[in-house]
Write a structure and sequence with these properties.
about 300 residues, alpha+beta, Tumour Suppressor Smad4, 2 domains, 20 strands, transferase
Length: about 300
């Protein structure tokens, strides 16, 4: 097999989890044995004890996932989001193996790792696309920051002791001004993340929509809202606000927002591609990840009474 034909996999592992180190070494060995090239970021290779391995290739940090057929992630949702940063825009789908707690973005669990590697080798997976958000910040009319998000873009107060005042706009029209702890603008993928914790609805991932969820808003109308995928969301830090806010994208990338800053969020043209090993309904994922009782809280009492 020529170098051009060789199959490449980018491996991303949690740098501070010992279990990830041990599992990464095993994955590298099995993929290498199958004739595949395993690519690892240089700083991460050192962190997970793979720097001296002859079975890995050190990736260009600027183009780590280019030329790779898959990005395999060992870790929780935070590590998977880091993998998404590397994979987005390259065409390489992302496959997460959960080593964390909930792991909503993960496709398999640690106990299924051997079978997952076999599925990777045989290319036995489907690929689906998840919408992302394009995020820009302007101040005094000038573009001062741009980023993107798979889960959510969140504007939060920077100081614990006071609320932040935000004017909310949808499709160029003002909706309200809220004194609040912040506002979450999320994708359907992110509806089970921060937006869920803030009281937002769960939105099925095949629904094309965006969510706007206030956090502890001191207002008569501050309901979570679901808007169309082509809507334009904007938050402006009220100029008279004392103190500053902060914008977080997926909880990983942040920028300070001075009074008068304007955050605009629209649907991005560049999705994140996820590798899927099963075709089970999203309902099953909700039940499994949130440990929902399908029998209700009375079920255990009925079972005990019947025994």
């Amino acid at each position: 097999m020529s170098a051009a034909e060789r199959r490449r996999i980018l491996l991303v592992a949690h740098p501070r989890r010992k279990e990830a180190h041990d599992l990464a070494a095993g994955v590298v060995e099995r993929l290498h044995h199958a004739g595949m090239e395993v690519v690892v970021l240089q700083d991460e290779a050192a962190a997970v004890d793979l720097a001296g391995s002859p079975n890995v290739t050190l990736a260009d940090p600027e183009r780590a996932a280019e030329g790779c057929e898959l990005v395999c992630v060992l870790g929780g949702d935070g590590t998977i989001l880091r993998g998404a940063e590397l994979a987005r825009g390259t065409g390489a789908p992302l496959l997460g193996v959960n080593l964390g707690h909930v792991g909503f973005l993960a496709e398999s669990e640690r106990e299924d790792l051997d079978a997952t590697v076999e599925r990777i080798v045989s290319r036995d997976y489907a690929v689906e696309e998840r919408m992302t958000l394009e995020v820009t910040v302007r101040h005094d009319g000038d573009l001062v920051y741009s980023s993107w998000a798979l889960n959510e873009a969140t504007v939060e107060k920077a100081s614990r002791e006071r609320m932040i005042e935000l004017t909310v706009e949808i499709d160029g029209r003002p909706l309200s001004t809220w004194g609040c702890d912040g506002v979450v603008m999320a994708t359907p993928t992110g509806s089970t993340a921060y937006a869920f914790s803030a009281g937002g609805p769960v939105v099925w991932p095949d629904v094309e929509a965006m969510l706007l969820v206030p956090i502890s808003a001191h207002a008569l109308f501050s309901r979570p809202m679901v808007v169309g995928p082509n809507s334009h969301l904007a938050l402006e830090v009220v100029p008279a606000t004392q103190g500053t806010g902060v914008l977080w994208c997926d909880g990983r990338r942040a920028v300070e927002l001075p009074p008068g800053a304007r955050v605009e969020v629209v649907r991005s043209r560049t999705p994140v591609r996820l590798a899927r090993l099963t075709s089970s309904p999203f309902t099953d994922r909700l039940v499994a990840k949130f440990a929902l009782s399908i029998h209700g809280w009375r079920g255990a009492a009925r079972a005990a009474a019947g025994s």
